[in-house]
Amino acid sequence: MYSASQIQHLEKISRALLKKNATAGNIEELRNALRFHEYRYYVLNDPLISDTEYDQLYKQLEALEKEHPELITKNSPTQRVGSTLNASFPTVQHLVPMLSLDNSYNEDDLIDFDRKARENTRLDIIEYCVEPKFDGASISLIYEDDELSRGVTRGNGVEGEEITTNIKQVRSIPLSAKFSDYNIQLAEIRGEVLMSKKSFKKYNELMEEEGLPVLANPRNAASGSLRIKDPKLVAKRSLEAFLYHVSYYTTLEGKKVSDEKDHSKENISKKEAPFITHSESLRMLWDLGFRSPEKEKKVVKGIDKVIEYCKEYEKKRDDLPYEIDGMVIKVNDLVLQDQLGMTSHHPRWAIAFKFKARQGTTKLIGVEFNVGRTGAVTPVAKLDPVHIGGVTVTSISMHNEDYIKEKDLRIGDTVLVERAGDVIPQIVKSMPEVRKGSEKIIHYPKNCPVCNSELFKEEGEAVWRCINIECEAQVVEKIIHFVSKDAMDIKHFGAANVIKFYEMKLLKDIPSIYTLDFEKISELEGFGKKSIDNLRTAIEDSKQQPLHRLIYALGIRYVGETTAKTLANAVKDIFDFSAMSIEDLQNLEDIGIKVATSIYGFFQNDDNIQILKRLQDLGLNMKNTKKQSSSSLNTLQEQTFLFTGTLNKLKRTEAEELVEKHGGKIVSGVSSKLNYLVVGEDAGSKLEKAKKINTVKVISEDDFLELIK
Ligand code: IVH
Question: Taking 80 as the threshold, does the pLDDT of residue 42 lie above it?
Fold first, then answer.
């Protein structure tokens, strides 16, 4: 896409523009620099400038265009964010129907597919292009005279909804691309819009904190996002896109070439054609600045190699930042594709290889109502045990009353359950078609299932709550949350012990965790010296947990892990919050009025402050160790780290957390600001780049573990 000299040039220009603002005279230079950095960030995932530097350039352009509105161009980077709402999404026809693919589930299916393809083409061996099957929402885009002119959902395959404004919010989709360099006047291209696992988790966390419905999987999140009326909200969902197919194009001379027989690929001579194999089309898209599966695909000869690559990829599935549900195998030569043609449903030149399913159907056999730490009463579906991707699922949260109504869930229903990657299982839908008539409507309780006091629901909220602050369930749940893995992570404690100790009156509130009477506990069955020592050490160790964990552990309403991190970064000491106004809190990233009000309320409440003071006296860390570099864990002292490739001992998130815990920082790309690149297996371009910068130390996962010891 960009040559080495262009990269150098654009980098130089960017540095200059960061020092001295652009003017009307060099506005196009500024735009080109921004386009280049968007490409580095969103397509290559390898930025060359920091987020703040990018923002500075973007703000320059916004200001210049405000001053000189006559200089605004249609494909200016500022023109992605539409301000007008989408009134409706008109239905439009695809230029070529979007067929679906035939599915295969095992080696035999693939061998069969290859045999038929060989028979039909009378060839001994066929070359295939194998690429991931992205699990998102399919879209089709039209570029006309090098500009994005239309974006459409798949719809029924023949017609879809026109969602151009929303498509423009996907930063990896270029607003313009030089198709004319390839002799193309108009092109219809296809791909998949995705939400990364990380963005999806963050999104659901926010929804959960706000008491709004969570989504079952990133696929639903992506397709739902594309239909939001307000493009600004779409932009906030951080969608991504892979483009993997050119279904139709016209040449500058007016020749039409398409998937369909009437304008088949035989219409164009090999010399005139911009590409003659599928992999060449991926290469073209990549060179035009699209995120095509250029790096993910593999071209192989013969079905054995196809099978090998599919298996290899299935192993990697959980380590990818986005969801894939299989692989797609395509005959690489486009003339052969034409020869094979289509059935009425799918092409004969391609097949999907589906990975082990993460969905299953089962019976909803009952409902329990649990009282949480905020008094929220959550319905939990009890299921006939169902095995999904190696895990047995027996119960699933149904979140709230609206969720049950929306999905029309009844006791006795057959339900579709999904466990997407490391996401907690969700009920995707019920199946009213197979009801027998004996299914029972789920009645929500009017009183707290634990203390029997009346339940209340606030205006505009979906959640029924027990508001009795002495309700045992809430006190116990607060303590369970405090000790849990994502909060203070006090190992060997666990929900069962919390309940046991509470019933024995050894625990009454959070601070009492740190004054447990171990003598009494040692009298209990199952508590030998070893387990008591383990518990005692775990409790003691938790006193040094970083501030964000403590904030999250306090269970302040609407404060999830992400918000807790934002909060911890904003102060030196937890007591600083007492001096902050609602407005101060709202100035922090992603904290709205509702969340700010809740945090403010918590720190204005004297009982809460007393609890915090007791915790401080008991020796808990109340300070932001990043701002106060006095922590004993501060071994990495502001050093910057980046991980690349597959790690063997740690999960990526664990490794990153370790860095932060030890006072280091994670950065997003390789640059001279990077101190350590930690390389796992199959490290790619980041490693190559790091080798060229001699200040970057390249270390292995083991070296890293040694470093933080
Ligand atoms: S090719 C005519 N390639 O899977 C061939 N499809 O049922 C067009 N999909 O609707 C499809 N990743 O939404 C192709 N690398 C990939 C894909 C892919 C995901 C989706 C696509 C399609 C469905 C197949």
Answer: yes
